[in-house]
Specification:
- The chain is built from 7 helices and 9 strands, in the order αβαβαβββαβαβββαα.
- The protein is of the alpha/beta class.
- It has 2 domains: 1-125, no CATH class; 127-236, no CATH class.
- Strand 1 (18-22), helix 2 and strand 2 (37-40) form a beta-alpha-beta unit.
- The chain is globular, with a radius of gyration of 19 Å.
Length: 236
C-alpha cells in the first residue's frame, strides 16, 4: 500500500478508520490521497445508476450503520470511526424533500430522531455539521469578519484580548490566519460538547452567540478526532 494511502489508518489519529461519501470526483481523489476510504454516494445502496435514497430515514439509518449503530443499538464492531457525507451545491439527493437546505434539515432531523439523548446511540454519536458561507473571493468584506464588534469599535481594548488558540501553532503566533469565516461549523455530542446561545445556523447568530468563534481549517479534522478519543486536545 502506498505511503500516502496509509496516512489516516496507520500514522494519524490512533488508527482512526474514516470514510468520505461523495459524488464529487475532485474530493474523492483528494480523500484517497489523505488515506480516507472513499465511497460513491450514488452507490450507497448498491446501485450506482439510481439516486441513493428513496427515503431520508433510510439514508440516516445507512449512515449510522457504517458507524456500527443498527436498530437503535451499538454493535460489537464498526466499519468506520468517522463518516463524512459531502453534499455539493445542487446535489439534492431526494427530489421529494425540496431544496438543499430542506433536505439537510430533514436528514439531520432523521439522525437526531434515531440518536435521541439517553439512547445507546445518542450517548455515543458525535454529529458535526460544516457548511460553506458566502464566497471565499469576497471573504474580506467586513460583514464576514468573526472579530467581536466591541474590539473593532475600540482598538485599545484589543490589548486585553488574549491570543486565541486558532491564532497559534504551538507556542508561535500564526501569520496566515484570516479573520473571516467562509465556513460554519457546529458540533453536537450529548453531555460532552459545550452549549452556547446559538439558536439558528447563520453567520450572524454564530458571530454574536457562539462560544468558540473560529478554528483553522487545517485543525478541523484534529478537533473531530479529539472528540472521538483519537487525538489529544487542541487549544483551550
Amino acid at each position: 500500500m502506498p505511503l500516502n494511502m496509509r496516512l489516516l489508518s496507520q500514522f494519524r489519529f490512533m488508527g482512526m478508520k474514516a470514510a468520505i461519501l461523495s459524488n464529487n470526483s475532485g474530493l474523492k481523489s483528494f480523500g484517497e490521497k489523505l488515506g480516507f476510504n472513499v465511497l460513491n454516494l450514488n452507490g450507497l445502496f448498491g446501485n450506482s445508476n439510481t439516486p441513493p435514497v428513496s427515503s431520508i430515514d433510510n439514508l440516516a439509518s445507512k449512515l449510522l450503520s457504517l458507524l456500527g449503530f443498527q436498530e437503535g443499538k451499538v454493535t460489537e464492531s464498526n466499519q468506520f470511526d468517522l463518516v463524512i457525507l459531502h453534499i455539493g451545491y445542487g446535489e439534492n439527493l431526494n427530489a421529494n424533500s425540496g431544496n438543499d437546505v430542506e433536505f439537510l434539515n430533514a436528514l439531520l432531523g432523521a439522525i437526531m430522531s434515531i440518536a435521541k439523548p439517553g439512547t445507546e446511540i445518542g450517548s455515543r454519536l458525535l454529529l458535526s455539521l460544516v457548511m460553506s458561507y458566502g464566497s471565499v473571493s469576497k471573504a474580506d468584506e467586513p460583514g464576514l469578519s468573526i472579530l467581536s464588534t466591541k474590539y473593532e469599535k475600540n482598538p485599545n481594548l484589543s490589548a486585553l484580548f488574549p491570543n486565541q488558540s486558532y491564532t497559534m501553532r504551538g507556542e508561535r503566533q500564526r501569520n496566515d490566519v484570516r479573520q473571516y469565516g467562509p465556513m460554519l461549523f457546529a458540533q453536537y455530542q450529548y453531555a460532552v460538547t459545550r452549549k452556547d446561545m446559538v439558536e439558528t445556523f447563520s453567520f450572524e447568530e454564530f458571530k454574536e452567540c457562539s462560544g468558540n468563534l473560529t478554528i483553522p481549517a487545517d485543525r478541523l479534522l484534529h478537533e473531530i478526532a479529539f472528540k472521538l478519543w483519537k487525538a489529544p486536545k487542541y487549544g483551550a
